[in-house]
Amino acid sequence: MSTFELVLRNALHKRARAVFTIGSVVVAFLLLGLLLPLERLLQSRVDLANANRLITTHKASLMRPLPLGHGERIAELPGVEAVSHFTFFGAFYREPGNPVAALATEPARFAQMVEEVRFHSPAQLAAWIGDPASIAVGRQLAQRLDWKVGDLVPLYSSIYPRADGKPVWTFRIATIFDAAGEQGSTDSMVLHHRHLDQARAFGQGTVGWFALRVAPQHSGSVAQAVDQLFARSPNETSTVTEKAFAQSFLRQVGDFGAMISLALALVFWTLLLITGNTMAQAVRERFCDIAVLKALGCSAERVAGLILLESLFIVGTGGLLGLLLANLAIPLVAAQTHQLLSALQASWHDWALGLSLMLGVALAISILPALRALRQPVSEGLNEALA
Amino acid sequence: MNLKDQPQGAGYISLRGVSKDYQKGRVTVPVLDRVDLEFGQGEFVALMGRSGAGKSTLLNLIGGLDQPSAGEVWVHGLCINRLPRRQLSAWRGAHVGLIFQFYNLLPALSARQNIELPLLLLGLPARERQARTEAALALVGLQDRGSHRPVELSGGQQQRVAIARALVADPPILLCDEPTGDLDQANGLHIMEILRLLHVEQGKTILLATHDPQVAGYAQRTLRLDALRLRQGVPA
């Protein structure tokens, strides 16, 4: 028998209790392993936002369109290097439960301004720019829906009905693009704004928002100049950096970072209460056994060490199992939840934080039982057998 | 006084003016009052007296499980009640074997693992631990029950495991607190026969607390305790 086996046997002596306690630890660390990558993914989308790009939206709301003509006036402002625009298409494929991220834009400007995507074939890129009814599709979306260059794709729009009354928008896939960086998502598609504008039933001559390329040192003055240009007009604007735009977009759903932190804090507080109570009860029930250990020559400090090891075993087993399950679940979650979560990935950072938390929880829940075991006189513990 | 500066003419185990009081709420209950006692090396002594007379308290003090309220406990030239806590634990593990009325085996461990435990605490290598454990199991006649847990053993078998555990580290002193108190007569006599052999063949110093005159009859001499004072008894 080794010290580890002694710890193991004590920890698993009451099997049902040990299983339930380890189970609660598994759930807590499973949540940790799922929520940390989610928080990182959402944060990375903000981080990826380019500081040399500004976004101009309607001052009242992102959902209010802006006149297309604003773009030409913005482009004339000093410090503005290039201007493009985007409009949500609200696409879904075959059924409403199968949404597809689709934006309408000017293809030539898109290829020029958006550095996060890469087109491999200049010929295909040219074909896309030249054909208003064609689309460029991201690699992840093409793989997910088994689309190829040349395919005709029928799509529905939850925002824009066609002016001719037909329910389906049909596009030909002209090219497939990849992400320039490792973390970029390509679960999306881009269509011609000109085509959308001509065929839609309403909203002609408007766009969702403008994207401006500027020199980073001029971003503040350009943003101010754009908003001043349209001040007191029917379509006042709000110009912010792309990072701020991404953050405000996420905040429309909620402050994810704060929500995730709060959820994890509550989970781990509950875990501390459950495992702390279990450990205290387990040690209280074994006061006589602890007194026997001391009577056999085990120092009080070593007894405290055994209690800590027992806590570490319970929390460590559950924690490692939970993180492992999270790592197995992440690719499944990413595959099932398209677009936003498709780039969900585990990281060694999660394991490092998880291991630190395991150690912290084990220490926290063993302090009180260990102190009590340290102070308990041997004769008093032995007398409990007689009680 | 130095830890090893034992008074001249003292025995193997000496109690010098030892008192022990317990605090029960606001009331102080004296159990032993200025007791002077000597036990020789290799002696087998029975401690008798009514419940609360201080038999277990005396054993606890000699085993270093409890501290005297006053006085000194000397064992083989060492004042054990002045040893630091950690040193006292190590000393007890190497020098004292304890046998309790209710066996006090760890329920999560098998008989073999219970016996091995003191050796693990002493830090002996695995091979030596295994050899000594098997020898101790054989000594108490339980070679075939080593893998059983305490709940799977009878009272007599559990007490034999407890004796094996007390012996496995080969301590010179055995402190037995009512070792037959929870056993039927046949099992009790079996246990006493084992203790007698340990005394005769291995020269262990055995101090045994009991209510039973028949059990006390196995000892070389008997000490009778009454509350507060300790009276020298009649040799067995």
What does this structure look like?
The complex is a heterodimer of chains A (387) and B (236). Chain A is of the alpha+beta class. Chain A is built from 14 helices and 13 strands. In chain A, the strands form 2 sheets. Chain A has a 6-stranded mixed beta barrel with strand order 4-5-10-7-9-8, surrounded by 4 helices. Chain A has a two-stranded antiparallel sheet with strand order 2-11. Chain A is elongated, with a radius of gyration of 30 Å. Chain B is of the alpha/beta class and 236 residues long. Chain B has a single domain, classed as Rossmann fold (3-Layer(aba) Sandwich), CATH 3.40.50.300. Chain B is 34% helix and 25% strand. In chain B, the strands form 2 sheets. Chain B has a 6-stranded mixed beta sheet with strand order 6-7-8-3-9-10, with helices on both faces. Chain B is globular, with a radius of gyration of 18 Å. Chain B starts with 12 loop residues before the first strand and ends in a 5-residue tail after the last strand. Residues 1-9 and 231-236 of chain B have low confidence and may be disordered. The chains are: A alpha+beta (387), B alpha/beta (236). The A-B interface holds A 1-3, 5-6, 9-10, 12-13, 288-289, 292-302, 377-379, 382, 385-386 and B 56-57, 60, 63, 65-66, 85-86, 89-90, 92-94, 98, 100-102, 104, 106-109, 113, 116-118, 120-122, 126, 129, 165, 169.
Concise summary:
The complex is a heterodimer of chains A (387) and B (236). Chain A is built from 14 helices and 13 strands.
Keywords:
heterodimer, A: 387 residues, alpha+beta, six-stranded mixed β-barrel, two-stranded antiparallel ribbon, 18% strand, B: 236 residues, alpha/beta, Rossmann fold, six-stranded mixed sheet, four-stranded antiparallel sheet, 7 helices, 34% helix, 25% strand, globular, disordered C terminus
